[in-house]
Amino acid sequence: MPNSETLNDQIEKHRLWVNGHEDGAQADFSGADLFGFCLAGINLSGAKFIGAKLRAVDFSGTDVSGSDFSRADLTRANFKNANLAGANLTGASVAAADFTDADMQEAVLRRTYGRRKESVWTYDDEEPPPPTDFTSARLHYANLERADLGDAILKGANLAGATLEGAALERADLSGAILRNAVLIGTVLSGANLSNALITGADLSGAQLHGARLDGASLVGARLRDTVLDGVDLAAATLTQPLDGIGIELQRVLVEHDRWVATNGQKGTRAMLDGTDFSDMDLRGMTLSGARLRACNFKQAQLGGARMVLADFSGCSFELASLAGCDLSGADMSGCDFTHADLSDIDVTPAAIVTADGTDTDRRQRTNLTGAKLIGTIVSNLDMAHIIIDESDLANAQLVVRTQSTNTVQ
Questions:
Q1: Who contacts 249 (Cβ-Cβ below 8 Å, separation ≥6)?
Q2: What 3 state SS string does 46-76 have?
Q3: Where are the domains of the chain?
Q4: For the chain, N or C: smaller number of CB within 10 Å?
């Protein structure tokens, strides 16, 4: 076990390394025993902790983004409010660790072990160890493939686009979690609490949800092929929007609009649906180019891959919606609310303005995001030069920038 002086020396050299100083050196704690050390609030981004013994280490508020914790023992480690974006925790033991409010976007937790067991180290005067806690953690597009996190707490966690294929999450608390477009193929969720969770567009093929709670959950557009739902009450969950009279009329208008676009306005009718409620609807791949849909509600809707060229969506709410892979060329999205929406891989190439007979006028229209609310909005491959947006809007934005875009529309 290194002494405090040696540890502080490595931390200082790492700080210099992070800042590009020639006297710096990347911190390498691989295999070290740092039991109970306090490493809170410092910058250890890119450090190596491979196979290290890090039980009860305090990493609260620490920047360990891009660090390598593979096969490390993180039992009871404290990562509250820490930055673990892009960190590698493959095969690490995270039993009783606390990741509350941590930034773990695109982190790798493949085969991570977090299940409670009697052999987990405890204080003599304590009750059995608490479950691994990911409450309100930001796990956008993280990889939790085959992670063993039975009984874990993921209440309010954001797992949008995350991969949890083959993961064990039985009895886990995922209430209020965001699992939009997540990959849950073969995931074990028996007895899990998914109440009020957003599971729209997720792939639950072969998943086991025996006895799981889904009251208030939204599964619009979710794939449920061979999903085990024994003992699950789906009555209080949202699966699809009911096709009442309004829904049927909406479908008719959208079909006519598709014809209008396909025939360059010669047939069909342009959609004029200001103020319409599209919340929780599956509109993936729809043709909405040129439509007027001002002040509409698209909350939690699935719009992945939709064509929205030169459309007017000004003042719409896209809160928690997925627009991944949408073509927004020249669209008017001014004043829209994109809070926690997914705008990954959207196309904002300036749109050509053509005449009624299809002649190019050599004029181009950029996508308008003036006054848009961009809080917790996921983006990737976004060329800001093609967008109309005020500096003040950007200053107030809180964007989640993906670095490993898959170009896959879900």
A1: none
A2: CCECCCCECCCCECCCCECCCCECCCCECCC
A3: 242-410
A4: N
Please tell me whether residue 38 adopts helix, strand or coil conformation.
Answer: strand
- Residue environment code for 46-61, b if the CB has 16+ CB neighbours within 10 A, otherwise e: bbbbbbbbbbbbbbbb
**CATH number, span 242-410:** 2.160.20
Structure tokens that stand for 88 in this block: 């590698």
Q: How far apart are CA 61 and CA 382, in angstroms?
A: 29
User: Judging by DSSP bridges, how do beta strands 351-354 and 360-365 pair with one another?
Assistant: antiparallel
Dihedral angle of Cα 248, 254, 259, 265, to the nearest 10 degrees: 130
Q: How many residues does the chain have?
A: 410
> First vs last Cα of the chain: how many Å apart?
47
